[in-house]
Amino acid sequence: MNRLLATAFLLTAAFLLAGAVTAAAQTPAPTPTPKPSPTPTGLNLKDGDRFIFIGDSITHQCLYTQYVENFYYTRFPNRRIHFRNAGVSGDRAADVLNRFDDDIARFKPTVATVLLGMNDASYKDFDQPTFDTYKKDVTTLLDKLDALGCRVFLMGPTMFDHQAWDKRIIEKPEYAKGRNVTGYNAVLAYYSAWLRETARQRHYGYIDLWGTLNDLTAQGRQTDPNFTLIADAIHPDAPGQQVMAHTIIETLGEPRTVGSVNAIIAGKTWKATSRSSTLTDTTGTTGQTLAFNLLPAALPWVVGDDAALGYKLTHSGHKLSNEAFTLSGFQPGRYDLIMGGQTVGTWDSNALARHIEIQEDPDSPTRQQAAQVAALNKQRNDEAIHPLRDLYGKRKGKLRAATTPEGKTALETWLPEFQKLQADLEAKAKTFEDQIYQANQPKQIHVKIKPAAPKAPQPKKAAP
């Protein structure tokens, strides 16, 4: 009886399973849900966007901010983007809140980066009450930025270089007074981790400056034990600030290419094209010479000579400012690339066919024009922006003194002078900005590739 029941059960189960399979076969497969379109890279800034850098003395230095400005001025010359440095030396998050309305909200930013923590952690081992104060004040700051409706990017505090610190306090022992920095770089790593998680929770971007600076410093010390990007242990030098700027631009995902030109022989004639620049009036003798007019869409990213090491370490030219020519079809030999009447370089036909890059060539007219833009922006920062940040530093001192009746009176008396000086410096910065947006407009360049002139024979040295 048990066997009969078991057999009946198995037959019933098989029948039901077969029915289910048949039904499944007859049911049409569900339509796959289309994948969302890839998120556009970069900030996609528009004409009139307003970009603010919020921070402490590392921002007050007007270096990484200046280099980022250089990138946008030369990469998007047809978009009028406004920048404001809102860094003050010695600031903690609480100090930023004290100047928020006048220094930040008044600018009406559409994009904001926040770099705070070096001072907030108080140059001592991790302390929970100190961190809780930082967390509370930064959260208040972020709530205020959200109320402005701007996009926010949190940046982890930069590296504290213990090796540089040990050297510094031997030379100037007074720097160690009141500071116990035995594990300070690790403390900043903790602050960075909290910022990263906060960015995730609030749907902000996060830019890892701490990790990048530590990694490059460790790499540099493999060949040079004394290598540093932060000679005073706290404030990155110009190369370190360029590393910061590169990390910002790369993390934001901005376009990496300035422009490219491709030329091949189609039939018996040259065909020259570009995905970004405008090419006209292509002429030349097949396989021997080529000429065309080139109107670039952008200029290469240029920073000052003092930041050249950082530019090299990060390969900023190749990675974020690529300006390339690929010219296939020349007969074997060596050829000059002439742009705007000046020889940029000489390559053989194989190199031209593979790929050449000119973004770092000092003889390139596009780089020379970009260097003029960078020089103007340096003047803007030196003569208007940095003095404005110094003025806000003075304002912070007045605010702190205002806790006494005498200090309050002094602050009230000084405020009209502050407002006048601020207006004058902002007007001066605007004048430089106008000049920059005239100097950064790409110009048409006549490009010619022709056989290189034979080198003159070198005179033989006389026998001794």
N-to-C span: 121 Å
Question: H/E series, N to C?
Answer: HEHHEHHEHEHHEHHEEEEHHEEEHEHHE
State the CATH topology of the largest domain: Rossmann fold
Q: According to CATH, what is the class of the largest domain?
A: Alpha Beta
| Total discrete domains | 2
Content of β-strand: 15-25%
Explain what this protein looks like in three dimensions.
- This protein is an alpha/beta fold.
- The protein folds into 2 domains: 205 residues, Rossmann fold (3-Layer(aba) Sandwich), CATH 3.40.50.1110; 199 residues, no CATH class.
- Helices cover 47% and strands 17% of the residues.
- It has 15 helices and 14 strands.
- A 5-stranded parallel sheet has the order 2-1-3-4-5, with helices on both faces. It has a 5-stranded antiparallel sheet with strand order 8-9-14-11-12. Strands 7-6-10-13 form a 4-stranded mixed sheet.
- A hairpin with a 2-residue loop joins strand 11 and strand 12.
- It is elongated, with a radius of gyration of 30 Å.
- It starts with a helix and ends in a 13-residue tail after the last strand.
